[in-house]
Amino acid sequence: MSKSPATRAVARHERPLSPHLTVYRPPITMTMSIIHRITGGALYFGTLLVAAWLIAASTSQAAFDWVNWAFGSWLGRLVLFGYTWALMHHMLGGLRHLVWDTGAWLEKHTASKIAWATLAGSIVLTLLIWIAGYMARGAL
């Protein structure tokens, strides 16, 4: 490339912006891959919550009551709902990758459909789990 300022100015304006975030739209398979990694990290945090609940249950009634109160608050239930979704999404994403490891469903169109199905399935399973939990408690 020429070192002339005029040439550099023209070259700078003619270069494509892609893959710039304002131009490039990430495919669903890439988005689900990123979310799969994020949910994997979130599961570490959620597992600490489960461990805290078990530790509180094994120590004293006061500790157990406090943890149950915290998990029963609106914020605690929101966190537990998110943990449930992360668990379901990560599980379905793992199953999707297991099927891909066999060489099946790797075509672009099929992979996109399965990625959308993973997202929809995780939402449906999460709602079913929470509805079943409320029904078991007699809250519904």
Automatic annotation (TrEMBL):
InterPro entries from the UniProt entry: SQR/QFR_C/D, Succ_DH_cyt_bsu_CS, Succ_DH_cytb556, SuccDH_FuR_B_TM-su
Signal sequence bounds: none
Key words of the record: Heme, Iron, Membrane, Metal-binding, Transmembrane, Transmembrane helix
Membrane-spanning segments: 34-55, 67-88, 114-136
Topology class, membrane: Multi-pass membrane protein
Protein role: Membrane-anchoring subunit of succinate dehydrogenase (SDH).
Name of the protein: Succinate dehydrogenase cytochrome b556 subunit
Organism placement in taxonomy: Bacteria, Pseudomonadati, Pseudomonadota, Alphaproteobacteria, Hyphomicrobiales
Gene of this entry: sdhC
